[in-house]
Known about the structure:
23% strand, globular, 5-stranded parallel sheet
Amino acid sequence: MTRIVIIGGGPGGYEAALVGAQLGAEVTVVDCDGLGGASVLTDCVPSKTLIATAEVMTTFDSSYEELGIIVADDTPPLARSARVVGVDLGKVNRRVKRLALAQSHDITASVTRAGARVLRGRGRLQGRQGVDGSRQVVVTAADGSEETLTADAVLIATGGHPREIPDALPDGERILNWTQVYDLDELPEELIVVGSGVTGAEFAGAYQALGSRVTLVSSRDRVLPGEDPDAAGVLEDVFRRRGMNVMSRSRAESAKRVGDRVEVTLSDGRTISGTHCLMAVGAIPNTAGMGLEEAGVLLKGSGHIKTDRVSRTSAPGVYAAGDVTGVFALASVAAMQGRIAMYHFLGDAVTPLNLKTVSANVFTDPEIATVGHSQADIDAGRIDARAVKLPLLRNPRAKMQGIRDGFVKIFARPGTGIVVGGVVVAPRASELIHPISLAVDNNLTVEQIAKAFTVYPSLSGSIAEVARQLHTRKTGDES
């Protein structure tokens, strides 16, 4: 029987374990924290659970007056509209941890039911491939004991951990990284978020919605510098309108505690003071101390593992998946990489990873969902495509729900009208992007999208409307 050892139990690891076991391999998953990895235990599942609470607060707070809902205190009854709802952060965080742990247990149960073995400990490769093509993996348990496993193939799926600034080290109380915020019992009164990428933007928006006064420190010209400029512009406008202090072109050099407060010093000498500081300045792959280079696995300068489109590393019989590869830090991509690795090694039909079909979402309010080629690709001449953007303000369903911010944008090839990408900025954009993802993945045309029925009224109607506009322009200039 083919022996497979998977080091790391995140999405890439546990999905690979399920596939490997289902295809008849003898699979062992080595993990030190719990299946699901950081994605389930400290990152994706916890943050999106927290954001779900914030979303309720934001939706209510931003539209209740327009919709005619009255919120008032008791003196005098119904005399004036006033927000009186709040949040018990301790209770929210206890729920976050409970759901994350339950998800990890569910994943473990699924993997073991499939026939895989789960071994608690830290794994590392031992030397190079043997003459018979096998690999040795040494597993160190928490008590220091070791076990050596022999594998025909090894998958590395160890994820990453928060990057730290030497002069702004988290203490778990006032200066925090994104894994530590769930230990807070009280809502930060004044939160400084350092870093305006996806993690920083999501937490900044969530805590602002929960009731914190938030300052977002961005070293770039705008928030979410890697996202569609139009989408990032909408979000930044929303943040500012809701009272967030967004500091662009401001790089944090240090953060230190001063009594019961935190003082952040910027590179230009300015200082910012708050009750708490969240450092969201990227992640570092968990590749150190694993014997990778000694085993022939090439690493990038960033420490990420080099892989090809079927998840192979430079070492025969060694694959890698997930954040450790530096290929789109998304749970969905990690899971696909893990499945592809197993299909490839075990000789099943496999389709190489195609990043231009990946859909992604930023869980802010409004959400930003993207798929396929971007505005940057078009502007740089990497692809010839036309774009049409339709604000949600024109959508009847959006008007009914009091939605003011957002849009649908689709990119299509001139002449053929084949859809090559899209952006949706809206509440639950993560749900609305799917029809555009299907179009990109299957080379559908704007004509085909335009001819499909949509519910009236619905936000998805804007997707069809954009497709209709692109269809009329596909053979000429947008002007």
